[in-house]
Amino acid sequence: MIICNNITxxxxxxxxxxIIISSPxxxxxxxSSSADSFCHLHGLLGDCACDVESIDAFNEAEVFPLxxxxxxxxxxxxxxxxxxxKCEIWKNDNPEHCSINDCTVSECSDNEIPSGLxxxxxxxxxxxxxxxxxxxxxxxxxxxGLDRTISSSQQEEFRGWAQHDDSxxxxxxxxxxxxxxxxxxxxxxxxxxxxGYKGESSVRIWSSIYKENCFPVHNHPQRSVYRSVMxxxxxxxxxxxxxxxxxxxHSSINIHLSANYLMKPAAPPFGQPYFGxxxxxxxxxxxxxxxxxxxxxxxxxYFIYLVELRALVKASDYLLHQPYxxxxxEKDAEVKELxxxxxxxxxxxKYNFNESELFLGENIVLKEAxxxxxxNISRIMDCVGCExxxxxxxxxxxxxxxxxxxxxxxxxxxxxxxARGEIVTLFNGFGRLSNSIHELNTFRKxxxxxxx
Length: 452
Hints:
By secondary structure, the chain is mainly alpha-helical. It has helices at 7-31, 52-71, 74-77, 134-144, 152-167, 200-211, 237-259, 279-286, 294-314, 316-320, 329-348, 365-380, 387-409, 420-451; strands spanning 78-81, 183-186, 261-263, 274-276. The chain is built from 14 helices and four strands.
């Protein structure tokens, strides 16, 4: 493992390069009455003490290379999920399903799943912090001379208690990994990209996410948070943070779709369609001449990035003691090393989201409101008609839900735990945000080239 001692110089160099890349766009902004996608994407984010440029440089120099390597490992690339749950939001009006080939998800066969992740194998949750298996602990109990055995019925009862306790702190519907309907999916073989799923069904999903989740506060129980992306003066901090998180997640997904768009050569020689960057699609989603709140939506991407980064830092002591068990001792050790380097870098970043500023005084009642609203959003994912969109929507929603759980349901000084699925979605969800910010730099270069 190579750790650069002069990381500060790398950070400063990348920040300098980003400023150079942005300069042509900023000059055009000054000369033109029509602002472009990146004209206002700079400076402070609001609701936290950080700026776009610092996050860009930090992400490119330290985060993006590391999080990519982490999410490509076996522990993080195999995600167990049930993509066949019925939509409970519109019970009498099941959503239309996408029939396009790119919408489908390839599930793993049994021989493709790492041995340590298979049903009946010793999972990471069954191991102590030092990596001892249940068999090793059984031998220790026998040697100790004390009877610490627990019957199977008692173990099942304890699991029920744990599930009940977890349900009181979860911010999203979590997958029961013991469910016979859940299947492992290799995320690397089912990449997030534009599938052609759009129209009324897609609009209905996002409309429901925004419009059907309102905070019952200020004596306005029906007031919707579906306003401008940056919120309004009427919103309290908790409402504004909630809305910016949803907007940032939406922006991140839109960037992934624009960066992995099915491109069809428009001029001879006509070749095969391919997935690539579609600058026009990106501008349709974020250019303020086409979408009024485009730049604000992009700033919300940086905001959710900071929030999920803060959750990873807060959970770092717990995450550092996980074995990341897949049954391959050498690969498991490599993952632990990568996670350690990543969390050290994340902890050293000088800007942080401060979760302690939320839910103060009488606003404490809003914590349960936020949990309930986000739980509803996670259920809406079951109504997505495109299987691949449902996969990635579920993963990223659960990642954000896990981050919120860590930030607002993990009191300091208490013992808390995360299921393997929560750890997988927490890292992968943040990895998607890191990828989106990285792709913004690619779109920035493409726009610069187009302007000549």
